[in-house]
Amino acid sequence: MAVNKRKRHRLRRLLIFILCCTSFFFFLHSDFFSLQRVEVEGNRRVPVEEIYRLTGLEVGTNLWRIDTKGVVARLKNHPLLETVSVKRKWPHTLVIYVHEREPLALLPGPGIFWVLDGGGYIMESISHITSKKLPLISGVQVKGQVGPGTKLEDLRLEVALDVLKALPPQAREEIEEIQASDPENLLLYLPERIKVKFGDATSVEDKWERLQGVLKDTNQLGLLEYIDVSFNGPPVIKLRQKR
């Protein structure tokens, strides 16, 4: 009799456990956790509507069923988005955090100009160089089929971008062009086509500081042929010969 009673108790506990698990399962998959709102943070250039469209999500989808890794993967295909993360905000919201790429330079393409970020990714193309106030990188030839989202792999381009990344935004605005055909001997062109022999991408801030000292001290900017800051020590200045 006591054995049968213990069996009935165990069976009752098992049934209660199964019932609780079933109820919990249906609760998790009920409309209580349906997606009703998508929040986007960190975007400036990419509209919220475009980000939402790229997620492929539909209102009413259960939050538990959303493949957050898949959402991240789809969004990272956008050429203007550098990093993406997704978090569920219970019970009805999905929060998407994005960090957009920042335009750093222009690179000539076939009849267009590519806008690049600091990692060498193509963000977009423009038809006129004057539509973006960014330094032009010359001496680098893009090969193959490329477009927005493509990462360009070229040592010359990498060195030129490293120089720009090491400078503050105000200094970058003073550079019109970086001639990068020789990554060990970069040439910078400033307004009024002032030519600067910059060398490689080492000691960038020191070179720039010494360059600024020359530009402030000389009163013969119009006669400058070049300024050489590619080595340690005082910059070398060469003036054009008067005819």
UniProtKB/TrEMBL annotation:
Record-linked Pfam families: FtsQ_DivIB_C (PF03799), POTRA_1 (PF08478)
Organism: Thermanaeromonas toyohensis ToBE
Name of the protein in its database record: Cell division protein FtsQ
GO cellular component term, pick one: plasma membrane
GO biological process: cell division
Compartment(s): Membrane
Gene3D superfamilies in alphabetical order: membrane protein fhac (3.10.20.310)
Signal sequence region: none
Domain called POTRA: residue spans: 33-101
